[in-house]
Amino acid sequence: MTPEKIKNIIAPCGLCCETCFAHVEGDIRHLAVKLKEKLGNFHINAKRFETLLGDPVFKKYGQFKAMLDYFSSEHCAGCRKEQCKIFPDCGVRPCTQQKNLDFCWQCDEFPCDKTQFDPVLVKGWILMNEKIRDIGIEAYAKKARTRLRY
Ligand code: SF4
Ligand code: SF4
After folding, report:
1. Residue 13 and residue 105: Cα distance in Å, rounded?
2. Ligand 2: which residue has its CA nearest to atom 8?
3. Which of 101, 113, 117 to mutate to test the pocket of ligand 2 (most atoms within 8 A of CB)?
4. Which of 19, 41, 141, 143 could form a disulfide with 149 if both were Cys (CB 3.0 to 4.6 A apart)?
5. In the chain, how many domains are there?
6. Is 78 a domain residue?
7. How many CB atoms lie under 10 A from the CB of residue 78?
8. Is pTM, for the whole model, over 0.85?
9. Is 104 inside any structural domain?
10. Same structural domain, 98 and 122
11. Do residues 148 and 88 both lie within one domain?
């Protein structure tokens, strides 16, 4: 993978945009689109299956479909292209852009207090950037792309 492609996948904070549910090119969205296609007009038959199989779980199909519709719609092109949808107050993106840095570990101020992250995310941000610094972005990206995000 080229360094440019890696940068499009890994945000400056270290999070992997590709494994995010909101990413337009992520597996979660692609698989949700595929499942939605395969299910077709299942919602019309859900009531029928509830009676035929006597299973009340089919009552929840509407809720499931709403979630599937949500996952399959386009939300975010990734941190390098637009401000994060999940953490709209993220201070890392504008700051690294201003400083012309790819990742926070490259910054003299790292770890700073400008992220606007909560304590859990700050911990992850520090760990992720230390990891990128220690093992290199190629090895980091390889692991981050296959690691479960949720
Ligand atoms: S920028 Fe944020 S919302 Fe967008 S794909 Fe990356 S982690 Fe997800
Ligand atoms: S000041 Fe903080 S947020 Fe900005 S690039 Fe440096 S470490 Fe990242």
Report:
1. 9
2. 104
3. 101
4. 19
5. 2
6. no
7. 21
8. yes
9. yes
10. yes
11. yes
